[in-house]
Design goal:
Elements: H1 2-20, E1 33-42, E2 46-59, E3 62-76, E4 79-92, E5 95-96, E6 100-109, E7 112-113, E8 117-120, E9 123-127, E10 130-131, E11 134-136, E12 146-151, E13 155-156, E14 160-162, E15 167-171, E16 176-177, E17 181-182, E18 184-188
Parallel strand pairs: 1-2, 2-3, 3-4, 4-5, 4-6, 5-7, 6-8, 6-9, 7-10, 8-11, 9-12, 10-13, 11-14, 12-15, 13-16, 14-17, 15-18
Length: 190
């Protein structure tokens, strides 16, 4: 009988301890900084920063500081502090907290840019996205106009500046540019 009471006592004690046990939240999870090359996939995890070359895929990943990449970035439901890509960036459902730059191709779908971004490209496409402001830098190698396409309700809250003076914002129905446009013009599509 004493043995049985002792077992029930241990079970009750372990239950009481589990009630008061601490669990780590996502913010307390240790972060990692990675220097990568080649093809890299990340899932629902928190990372301090990523720096590398090649292809990086983020799926539900939070990057606290920055992604610095020469190559291709593909994201789905990610959060990134600062984004700096030379190559191509395809962002879906992604939040960019501190701006950054893309030199090459940028396509963003249902993404939010909370600070201004800099682009070094001939064409960038934003679909159902929100942006603060954009500076499109002049590229001496490009002789053609530089184009920003806004689709499916995309809104730019701030200024858009084309350094080349040959810029064009293709504005599809439901999209808006709320700040001034310098160095380019708005072309409304129906």
């Amino acid at each position: 009988m004493k043995f049985r009471n002792w077992i029930f006592g241990l079970i009750a004690l372990s239950f009481a301890v589990s009630l008061f046990a601490e669990t780590k939240t996502k913010e307390e999870t240790p972060t990692k900084a990675f220097q990568v090359t080649g093809i890299n996939n990340y899932g629902a995890e928190t990372i301090d920063s990523l720096d590398g070359t090649g292809l990086i895929k983020l799926n539900g990943t939070s990057i606290l500081k920055s992604v610095t990449l020469v190559g291709s970035l593909i994201t789905l439901n990610a959060e990134i502090g600062t984004l700096d890509v030379i190559g191509e960036a395809n962002l879906t459902g992604t939040i960019i907290k501190n701006g950054g730059s893309v030199a090459g191709s940028l396509q963003a779908v249902r993404s939010v840019f909370k600070k201004d971004i800099s682009l070094y490209s001939q064409k960038s496409v934003f679909t159902a996205s929100k942006l603060e402001g954009i500076t499109i830098h002049k590229d001496a190698a490009l002789k053609n106009k530089q184009v920003i396409e806004l689709k499916q309700g995309t809104i730019i809250n701030g200024a858009v500046h084309f350094e080349s003076g040959k810029g064009e914002i293709i504005l599809f129905p439901g999209c808006q540019v709320l700040g001034p446009v310098t160095g380019g013009k708005i072309v409304k599509k129906t």
